[in-house]
Amino acid sequence: MLTTVRNLENYFKNLFVGPHYHYHLDLPKMMLPDQSDINIEYLNWRSRDDLHIFDVSDEPYRERIAERFAEVCAGLEFKKFLILSHSLKYNNNVSFNNIIYFPHNYFDPVYFWDQETALKNINSYDRKYFVSCLNAQARMSRIYNYIKLKQKTYNNELLLSLHNSPTHAGNDLNSPADWIPEDYWSEWNAIRFNLPKLKENDLDIGHSAYHDAYINLVTETFVQPFEQFFSEKVYKPISCGQLFIIIGSTGAVANLRSMGFDTFDDIIDHSRYDFRNTWRSRIDIIHEMLDELKDLNWSKIYEETKLRRLANVRHFFSGLAVLPYARNIANRMSYISKDTYYYDHHLILGKHDFRSPYVKLPSMHHLLK
């Protein structure tokens, strides 16, 4: 997370305006100590008549916890409650009246990242690196991708990081053999102890990976099919006016496109990998594409796409990308509580109004109620 629990709690309450409700974000307290189930004691002393919002949208490996929360709240006879999930499965899904998609990792960055840092990148046409790819936790998909990148003949034109941290095998797979070939696993064990240990995760956009590389290769936390999850990593290149490729869940790029972002399909054919069901096949195709893209005139591409990249930056910081999702949440809150809620865009526009030499974005607050 980019913020403290208290900061995000206040931010959420400012965005969704209406009668009083209770917003619960502290997942460790809402769960039992062993994380096996819901903490009934936490829920028991809550009012059954008030509207409660339980936010479990920040954790990518809890796809089913939202449904469990809804089941427990119904069993405890909560009259008005809504569960926020990271999964697009619940986006305006009438089969789950008390669960809805919430783009948690959008709202943090759009408010706390620096727009001036982002705008400085727009005119940067001549860059040192072809691809940047930063990796914190050493998940299997990231190990596989990292080793393939290190094997490139042009690896001196890549800005890479991977840390000697505990390896996360992920969801339901039991051994490294299920994930990567044995020679890749052996290579990882040979190099891992020469890599730095992760001291602090880089959650901001000031790193040279975003202003001195043409393509940002995003390695998302979650790469299994169809359970969509976006961390802040996927928004970094977009917010900085950078081109990108995403190693994430199936359909990740299509989802960004539906949010109104330019995915530069005329330059990078994301359709070749975005709907492949296995993450290994997606990574293999991405590496074929990188080899093909390598010899393009990237300085010229960046000059010719300046306005399109600027449009992505504007769209990101305006908050309009998540307007449909935010309206869905406000409408669902209104339906459940029988009160009236709306998404108040003013908090975002108040900080990111683009008063700069590049562009001024007019206030659209009155359009968003």
Q: How would you classify the quaternary structure?
A: single chain
Percent of residues in helices comes to 25-40%
Number of strands: 10
- The secondary-structure element order is HEEHHEHEEHHEHEHHEHEHHHHHEH
For the sheet with most strands, the description reads:
4 strands, parallel
The computed structural class is alpha/beta
CATH architectural category of the largest domain: 3-Layer(aba) Sandwich
Beta-strand proportion: 5-15%
- From the alpha-carbon coordinates, what is the Rg to the nearest angstrom? 21 Å
Q: Taking strands numbered 1, 2, ... along the chain, how are they ordered across the largest sheet? A: 2-3-4-5
What does this structure look like?
The protein has 369 residues and is an alpha/beta fold. The chain folds into two domains: 5-102 and 319-367; 114-315, 3-Layer(aba) Sandwich (Rossmann fold), CATH 3.40.50. The chain is 37% helix and 12% strand. The strands form three sheets. It has a four-stranded parallel sheet with strand order 2-3-4-5, sandwiched between helices. It has a four-stranded parallel sheet with strand order 7-6-8-9. Helix 4 links the parallel strand 3 (51-55) and strand 4 (80-85).
